[in-house]
Request: fold
Amino acid sequence: MSGLGYTVPAVLAALAVGALELTALRTGLFRRPSYWLSMLIVVGFQILVDGWLTKLSAPVVVYDDRQTIGVRFPFDIPVEDFLFGFALVTAVLLLWERQRERR
Amino acid sequence: MDRWQYLLVLVACLAITLPLELFRPGVYRHAWRAMRAVLPVAAVFVLWDEVAIHAHIWTYNPAFITGVTIPFQMPIEEVLFFLVIPLCALLTYNAVSAILERINRR
Reply:
């Protein structure tokens, strides 16, 4: 841990996506139970897929531990990955929802 | 065979979520809407990924990727990741929304 080159952008990305919805897009996605239930399912599968990709015994993706806070859970997943995943998936769902409103 | 590992994980994700397309309104059936949701976000994340790879924040184990890259250093699998995972998420959201609507209508 020194640079936090992954932690800082991951936190910023998650905050940016939240701010995008609350200030600009206002799709109402965060008020939909189907969004939160979907995110729960997505995180469940993320643990399986990401767990496979980041396992320290035979990693597909190799992280510089100095760029993270060093917490890897569950399995060997850097916790930053969950912010990364939240930002990625939520941003896509927001753009999907925004097109519903335009119809 | 190991070199196909990352790619096969992505194929498995697409295969597992494919049946969710049966729920209405569907995702693949609305390809233009899906592309307009997935591509702008993928562009931003590909950029982030490129910077992270250059800064050595993360790298990819050459044992488990095909070795095909796009400019500048990104494995093709990582580009596909930003298309596949959002599609899986959209399919999940599509199915969950359809199921909840069905329950609420009762």
Observations:
- Chain A touches chain B at residues 3, 5-6, 9, 13, 32-35, 37-38, 41-42, 45, 49, 52-53, 58-64, 67, 85, 88-89, 91-93, 95-96, 99 (CB under 8 Å).
- The two ends of chain A are 48 Å apart (CA to CA).
- The beta strands of chain A are 61-63.
- Residues 33-54 of chain A form the longest helix (22 residues).
